[in-house]
Every structure is written in C-alpha cells, then in structure tokens.
Amino acid sequence: MHIRVILPVITASWVESTKEGYAAVVRPSTEISVVPLDWGTASIECHRDEALVVPDIITKVVEAEADGVHGVIIDCMADPGLDAARELVDIPVVGPAQASMHLAATLAHRFSVLVISEGDIMAVEHQASRYGLSRRLASARPIHVPVLDLEEDPEATLEALVAAGEKAVREDGAHILIPGCTGLAGWAPRIQAALADRGSEVPVLDPPSVAVKQAETLVDLGLSHSRLTYPTPPRKPIRWPWKTPFAPQ
User: I need a surface site. Which of 31, 50, 214, 225 has the fewest CB within 10 A?
Assistant: First the structure.
C-alpha cells in the first residue's frame, strides 16, 4: 500500500520530518511518500493562505492518483482543498481535522481543539459545523504560538498546549483533546501525560496518526468517497497561470 502525504506548503525543509512522523505509525508494509507544494505559502494560518495553496494541492492529489498511489492525506488541520480533491480522484483523500473530529466524537461526549491563534477559533467552529459536529465541540483554545515557531522552544510550546488543554477540560467540559496543527505531530503523548500530572486525565489524539490509519483502513476495505456527494466536475475551459492536470481544456 502506498499513501501519499501532501505537505500543503512550500516549506520543503519539513518533508523529511513529516515523512518520519507518518512512517512511524503505519504498518511495515505501507509506503509513505511526502510532496510539498511548488506554489503556495510557507505555512497556513488564515483564509488567504488556504486560498493560495488549494490549486497546487489538488494538482498534487491528481498526480498522486496518476502515480498509482492508493490513498492521499492533506497534511493540514484546515483540510484545505479536501472537497475539491475528492471530486477529482477516485482514491481516498483524508483530512486530518475531519478524521480526528469524528474519532473524538466516537470516543468522548465533547472535544476541544488546541488551536494556534485566536483567529483559528472561528475556523474550527465552522469546520465542526460543516462536519456535523457542532454539538460535540466544547471549545477551540488558542496556544498563541505561530506555526513557524512551534519548534523554537519546545518546552514553552508544550506548556502553552497543556495550559490551553487544562482550561478546555476544566472550564469548557472537553473529554478529549485534538492538537490543532499537524506541525504538532507526535506531541499527543507528551500533552496527555502532562495533563494527567495536573489531574486532567483525558485522551489526546494525534491527527496525522488518525489520518493515516483511516487512509490504511479505507484502502483495506476498498472504500472511497461517494460520487453522489463528490461528483466529477464538468469539463470546461479553465484559464490558469500554469499547466495543471485538474484543468482539462
């Protein structure tokens, strides 16, 4: 089985660490490949960033299917381009936020997302609504650490995550937590252990792990998204600055 991870930013220096993170949790027989964008932004932290990265994300998804890949993950908690990508390919395309929110709703009464900034709160609320989970979202708690600075001071980042998580549990009624950035891949056990030490013993999901396990399961079951929900787009002229496989003329 070959799972392709689309790193939806132009920060190519993240490729190896992203591949290592996903490869650490898949079965030995599952191959992981990671591709960054040729066009887009260095990180995704606002609506503008999402809009700028979507065209090359869906280009990379179409290329993945052409390469014989069995499933694709869009490595960002905004799930950018997820619906559009599913319209264009038949292989499973997984968004870490969608996968994690639904798993959280299966495992607990209410969940909270530990987001990067105040601006992400509304985005998470909109996501939960779109995924039919508004009633299960307890809160989105910001940690106030920019994406590009998450690894600058790991101890400070961990403290910010634990403090936000503690408020989500004690003040908002969250029974399970989701780190709101795939740049925090692998942090879940540390967050969970630190919270337990403070008396807030709740599960903490690792969205990349959830996403890749969902991708493996879908491929195993021979399942993908419904064409009634994601119909193939009509062919029409599309003008775009560069040649893309998603824009047939």
Answer: 31
